[in-house]
Write a structure and sequence with these properties.
Layout lengths: L7 H56 L3 E4 L6 E13 L4 E18 L2 E4 L2 E3 L5 E2 L4 E7 L2 E11 L5 E11 L7
Antiparallel strand pairs: 1-2, 2-3, 3-4, 4-5, 6-8, 7-8, 8-9
Length: 176
């Protein structure tokens, strides 16, 4: 018998093989897209966490803290104070002591799954703070160490931890 073309069995075999290849390919594409989404989310979390850390560092460095107080109305809060600074008198080129009464203040607070600096919420674009986030204060003699522990949580419930520790020396106003 002279056969021309494909028989029913060959055609069914080709369809099954093609279907298996398509399903394997779709699983592979789904895996790649899922991995890409996770990498993108992790990258965004890292960007937001590092922004938060650099913002705290910048605020504290430019502020020049000389003392602190614990907030009375909440547990995850600290107020750093600046009672004095040295400024250059440009006319005489002398360094002068400038005192602040009342003291300048800078408030850091975690509440309602958000972070606040001076009562202004810091945007975490697509993330919020997990309830494990905290601010810890450790005082050894005149050294005040603040430890900020942030856990960013995504819409997918993934968590990303960040920690920053900053210290300053408690100082009295010179000559007082």
């Amino acid at each position: 018998m002279d056969k021309k073309g494909l028989g029913l069995l060959e055609l069914l075999g080709a369809i099954v093989i093609f279907g298996l290849m398509v399903s394997m390919l779709s699983v592979l594409i789904s895996f790649i897209l899922n991995a890409s989404d996770k990498i993108t989310e992790k990258s965004r979390a890292n960007t937001e966490g590092m922004y938060l850390i650099s913002l705290i560092e910048s605020k504290l460095q430019s502020f020049g803290a000389t003392d602190y107080q614990i907030c009375l109305d909440t547990t995850e809060c600290i107020i750093v104070e600046n009672h004095f600074s040295y400024v250059l008198d440009e006319e005489t080129e002398n360094i002068l002591l400038e005192t602040y009464e009342p003291a300048l203040t800078l408030r850091f607070e975690i509440k309602n799954h958000a972070f606040y600096i001076d009562n202004s919420e810091i945007s975490l674009r697509g993330f919020m703070l997990h309830e494990d986030s905290s601010i810890e204060i450790i005082v050894l003699q005149n050294t005040v160490r603040m430890k900020f522990y942030f856990v960013l949580i995504s819409n997918n419930e993934n968590t990303y931890p960040f920690t920053i520790s900053k210290s300053f020396e408690k100082q009295e106003i010179p000559g007082s």
